[in-house]
Amino acid sequence: MELGKRSNYESSYNPRRLLALPRESNRRALGLDGVLPFVGHDLWNHYEVSWLDTRGKPNVALAKIVYSCESENIIESKSMKLYFNTLNNTRFENSDMLRDIVMRDLTSCVKGPVSVWIYPLHQREHCVLSPLTGTCIDDIDISIEGFDVDPTHLVTSNDTVEETLYSDLLKSNCLVTGQPDWGSVWIRYKGKKICPEGLLRYIVSFRDHNEFHEHCVERIYVDILQRCAPDTLTVGARYTRRGGIDINPVRSTQAELIVNPRLIRQ
To answer: What distance in Å separates the CA atoms of residue 78 and residue 212, rounded to the nearest whole number?
Structure first.
């Protein structure tokens, strides 16, 4: 495990820097031992990608990485950074060759299909901020009693709605280092109306919680599904970057288009 340790900078290609973390143990803690109650993906943006061309001239780019939540493993985030560092002084004929090698290595690590895109810096997709859509619940005037994750805050009324709610107040802590992870979470659902005050208290209750990004989103999804029983549900989070990388998990009752709205904190 690389997180929380001093790491040597290694600038020659080494796929062994990637560290896989099984999804199974956390899902078992959530009671997910059989068929998953969701589909979805984990989307990573890497803003510090570099390599050399065949004549030694450096290139810089951005990478987008997507793999299914049905993959066996996730990747430890620091090991992803260290792996990409090993490409910095490695020569590739073109960005397509780089992409293919990265895709091969990540697929082997997560034990599931991985898609990789390498973008030049001028491509517009990564230059424009796209705020979350829906209703922000952060201005609701509430009191907070504590910061232990508490699903009992999640309650519904008898009204049936179809809406998207979001909050920028998601904070949890890295499971290994205890350092803060900051994010924005969005919930799109159809069913009995979720009390926004209770939902905000629930989101804020993660403030001292120690768990990886992907696991937090799955916990939120499972708690809402069990407590509120919506007909359809999608939960996604956009986390701020650490080490040049941001991680953005999505879990849903149905297949979702893969979109990548860059928020102001990303």
So the answer is: 12
Positions marked active-site: 174, 181
* b/e burial code for range 42-75 (CB count within 10 A of at least 16 → b): bbbbbbbbbbbeeeeeeeebbbbbbbebebebbb
Beta bridge partners of 60: 50
- The last residue of a domain, from among 126, 149, 171: 126
Indicate if 103 and 149 belong to the same structural domain.
no
H helix intervals, 16-94: 24-29, 77-85
- Quick: pLDDT tens for 41-77: 999 999 999 999 999 999 999 999 999 999 999 999 9
Q: How do 114-119 and 135-136 pair as beta strands? A: unpaired
Boundaries of domain holding 117? 15-126
**Distance, CA of 200 to CA of 196 (rounded, Å):** 6
Provide the residue count of the chain.
Answer: 266
**In terms of domains, do 175 and 113 share one?**
no
Question: Global pTM?
Answer: 0.93
Structure tokens at 66: 């997507």
Cβ-contact 166, 185 below 8 angstroms = yes
pLDDT digits (tens, 9 = 90+) for 13-45: 999 999 999 999 899 999 998 899 999 999 999
Kindly tell me the burial class for residue 244, based on how many C-beta atoms sit within 10 Å of its own C-beta (0-12, 13-18, 19 or more).
middle
Give the confidence band of 103 by pLDDT, cuts at 50, 70, 90. very high
User: In degrees, to the nearest 5, what angle opens at C-alpha 119 toward C-alphas 113 and 121?
Assistant: 155
